[in-house]
Amino acid sequence: MSADEFIVTPWHVEGDIDYDKLIEKFGTEKISPELREKIKNLTNEDHFMLRRGIFFSHREMNRILEDYEKGIEFFLYTGRGPSGHTHIGHLVPWMFAKWLQEKFDVNLYFQLTDDEKFYSKTDLTLEETSKYAYENALDFIALGFNPEKTKIIINTKNIQTLYPIAAQVAKKINFSNTKATFGFTNETNIGMIFYTSLQSAPCFIEDKPVLIPLGVDQDPHFRLTRDIAQKIGKQKPALIHNIMVPALTGPGGKMSASEEKGTIYTTDTPDIVKKKINKYAFSGGQPDIEQHRKLGGNPDIDVSYQYLRIFFEPDDAKLKKIYEDYKSGKLLSGELKAILIEKINEFLKTHQEKREKAKQQIEQFLLKNK
RNA sequence: GGGUUCGUAGCCUAGCCUGGUAGGGCGAUGGUCUCCAAAACCAUCGAUCGUCGGUUCAAAUCCGAUCGGGCCCA
Q: Per CATH, which fold does A6-247 belong to?
């Protein structure tokens, strides 16, 4: 794969992603300074993920906000395909969703697509994906969502609620649509072919506009949903997209739940975190210390720096100092890694405590079928 | 239900026709080098060849059955 090639689909992300090109390719809109300003005015906060372009693209986010200003409330929807343990990349859209929920005081639905992972991963059983769904739910709850306004949907458990909506959707999507959108072939099992309608279903679970914060790789599902929304008498879902969190080992792909060493899990111990970062994190440093002092490092390709930017260092002034020190050669790669290790472990310490508590809270979060 | 095709280390795959206990690539691991990581170089681990049975001195290789995946037709 050459430098300017990249692949972004719901099931596969590869290459060095050019996000401007992706916006063009997917037909989404870049988050404009005006939109950012508007969000800032409504929330009284300029969230660092917006400021730094971690959330970089959207579809009709402006409409959601205009409606909101007119007193029309929206709700939030996001989710996760439970194919393994939760890693820190997953937390990006969840954290942002949590912030949106807080600021706008709205309902949120979190969908765990255990059926989809069973369909798409040949070696996973339904028991395993359901087990991961539970595990992932704990991480989600640990972020501190409002239990009064937050419901977790597990596809195989909540099918009774989802199915009537999914049926409405499914009738309007034909085989050619899914083939074109997802690249399905004759080998694709029919679970996959139907599946997108289940991912659409929560968009219409309330009779209100919906805003979906999500990784940009999931956009194709909602492209279909948006296409058919009016046909079933519903509003198009609005989306706001985050970039892919790079794997520890390098910029050529997203962090994957199945690749041990390129991934920091929410359950990793401080020692494991330290070891993984030191041993695997791709750096933008120079070949040796002398050259590094002289030429400086490249924070833009340095994964440790990127993690700080994306998630672990919300303080702009601190981040800027790290950026400049690294770029000037004052800060060594090993030192940068030490900063990140400290930050991650600090975060995980509290996260893991909250995750334990979540085991007692999970019941009140699970959506009950009516 | 019929036909067809595939099943070799974590992944991809050679070998099967012309039987003599398996070769490569990627990956992984360790080392050298680096402030780390990457790259590069060196080294190492790893498969009883889906399963069961038969033929044979000898089977991944031939035969039968069976399980699993794919495609086509009905």
A: Rossmann fold (3.40.50)
